[in-house]
Amino acid sequence: MMKAKEVVLAYAEALGKGDVATAFSHFSPNVVWYQPGNNRFSGAKQGSDAIGKMIGGMMDISQGTFALSPTGDLMVNGDLVAMPLRFTGKIADRNLDMQGIDLFKVEEGKITAVWLFSENQTEEDNFWGS
Known about the structure:
Blueprint: H1 4-16, H2 20-24, E1 27-35, E2 43-46, H3 47-61, E3 67-70, E4 75-77, E5 80-91, E6 94-107, E7 110-118, H4 121-128
Parallel strand pairs: 1-7
Antiparallel strand pairs: 1-2, 3-5, 4-5, 5-6, 6-7
């Protein structure tokens, strides 16, 4: 069984290549994704279908420009893994370019929960809209 850091690295690598199916294969069937803020995508998403729908919505309204990339080493504390990253996108005349942290909980070789943190939540909320 892969260790927590290896699971998150495999997820991030697959996502970076656009291989959503492989990335999502690292999720537990009951994974919960906590999207922060007060925008159209905010709130807890249960299961990979709901998460996929949310990410698909982000890609749709940003016309495929939404992207994220790790910016530093992963940090591990037991079954928790923090990944510093940068995320960018464009919607019409609005641009998004900020730092964030994604925090993953990994149990029995699968990601069971994800919490996202944005450098400027108000700016991110304004970007995504309601």
